[in-house]
From TrEMBL:
HAMAP family: TatB. Residues 138-149 have a biased composition (Basic and acidic residues). The gene is tatB. Pfam families: TatA_B_E. Residues 106-149 are annotated as: Disordered. Part of the twin-arginine translocation (Tat) system that transports large folded proteins containing a characteristic twin-arginine motif in their signal peptide across membranes. Together with TatC, TatB is part of a receptor directly interacting with Tat signal peptides. TatB may form an oligomeric binding site that transiently accommodates folded Tat precursor proteins before their translocation. Belongs to the TatB family. InterPro entries: TatA/B/E, TatB. The Tat system comprises two distinct complexes: a TatABC complex, containing multiple copies of TatA, TatB and TatC subunits, and a separate TatA complex, containing only TatA subunits. Substrates initially bind to the TatABC complex, which probably triggers association of the separate TatA complex to form the active translocon. This is Sec-independent protein translocase protein TatB.
Amino acid sequence: MFNDIGPLELVTLVVLAVLIFGPEKLPKMIQDVTRTIRKIRDFSESAKQDIRQELGPEFKDFEFEDLNPKTFIRKQLDNDELGIKEIRNGFDLKKEVAEITDAVNGQEAEASTGATAGSVGGSGGTVDLTKKPQTSRQVERPPFDMDAT
């Protein structure tokens, strides 16, 4: 319950409790708080048991922690009835991106070394299809028309 409270914070809480409630009332307050926490836990457990009884015998091993989405997904991945691990292993995005990058880099290397795989023979010369054609004049873009969109 108090997993994230350090020793210094705990000492600070004890000192504050002694200052606020006083050394005479502090034991009574601790008993009241522990009694209240115990009642809340008992109420919670009885509610869980009532829900399990209402659900029937097929849900006897049902845990309320399974309703947490992270726990549910983790449990389904461990169960693997649907073949999720197989799908997950079959789809490796990093590997696919690396293959595409290698393919693109390979084409650039071929184009820079003068390979004729991407060139077409025409009237007296070769044209490299991997490069953009050079034009003598710049093509102007039409103005953006806000009403047309």
